[in-house]
C-alpha cells in the first residue's frame, strides 16, 4: 500500500504537469517500473513466493466459502502450515538479500518493518520460538 499510494501521488503530479501524450506514456512507464522495483517483484525468488502466498490465500478462502463439513479442516490446516512456511521464507529471503546496500534499502526496511511489526518473523527465522504455536480452532460451518 505504501508503494502504490506514494507512486500514485507522484504519477498524478506528473500527469497534471505533462504537456503531451508522449510525456504521459513515459510517466506511466516510470510509475509501473517503480511499483515493480519497490515491491521487489523483479526478484524472481520473491515474486514466486508472493505468488504462492496469494494462491494459498485464494485456496483458504475457497475452502472456507465451500466448507460443508469438518472434512475440510485438515485441508485448512495444510494451507495454514504452508502459508506459515512461505511467509517465513519470504522474510528470510528479504533479510538475507543484498538489497540492504542497494538503492531499494529504504523500501526494504519499510516493508520488513510492516511485515515484522511484532518481531514474530525475526524470532521464527532465528529459531527462538521453540514452542509449538497452538493452532486456532477452525469453526465448522453449516452445522445443523
UniProtKB/TrEMBL annotation:
Recorded family membership: Belongs to the TUBGCP family.
GO MF term (any one): microtubule minus-end binding
Protein's name according to its UniProt entry: Gamma-tubulin complex component
Entry keyword annotation includes Cytoplasm: yes
Domain of life: Eukaryota
One GO biological process term: spindle assembly
Primary subcellular site in the record, as a coarse category: cytoplasm
This protein's UniProt keywords: Cytoplasm, Cytoskeleton, Microtubule
Residue span(s) of domain Gamma tubulin complex component C-terminal: 2-121
Subcellular location: Cytoplasm, Cytoskeleton, Microtubule organizing center
Job of this protein: Component of the gamma-tubulin ring complex (gTuRC) which mediates microtubule nucleation.
Organism: Gossypium klotzschianum
GO cellular component: gamma-tubulin complex; microtubule; spindle pole
Entry-linked Pfam families: GCP_C_terminal
InterPro entries: GCP, GCP_C, GCP_C_sf
Record carries keyword tRNA processing: no
Amino acid at each position: 500500500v505504501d508503494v502504490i499510494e506514494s507512486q500514485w501521488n507522484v504519477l498524478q503530479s506528473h500527469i497534471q504537469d505533462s504537456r503531451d501524450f508522449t510525456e504521459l506514456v513515459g510517466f506511466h512507464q516510470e510509475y509501473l517500473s517503480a511499483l515493480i522495483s519497490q515491491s521487489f517483484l523483479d526478484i524472481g525468488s520473491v515474486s514466486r513466493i508472493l505468488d504462492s502466498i496469494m494462491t494459498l490465500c485464494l485456496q483458504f478462502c475457497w475452502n472456507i466459502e465451500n466448507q460443508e463439513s469438518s472434512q475440510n479442516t485438515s485441508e485448512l490446516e495444510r494451507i495454514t502450515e504452508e502459508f506459515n512456511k512461505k511467509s517465513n521464507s519470504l522474510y528470510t529471503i528479504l533479510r538475507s538479500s543484498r538489497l540492504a546496500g542497494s538503492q531499494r534499502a529504504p523500501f526494504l526496511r519499510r516493508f520488513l518493518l510492516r511485515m515484522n511489526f511484532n518481531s514474530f518473523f525475526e524470532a521464527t527465522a532465528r529459531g527462538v520460538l521453540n514452542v509449538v504455536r497452538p493452532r486456532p480452532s477452525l469453526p465448522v460451518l453449516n452445522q445443523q
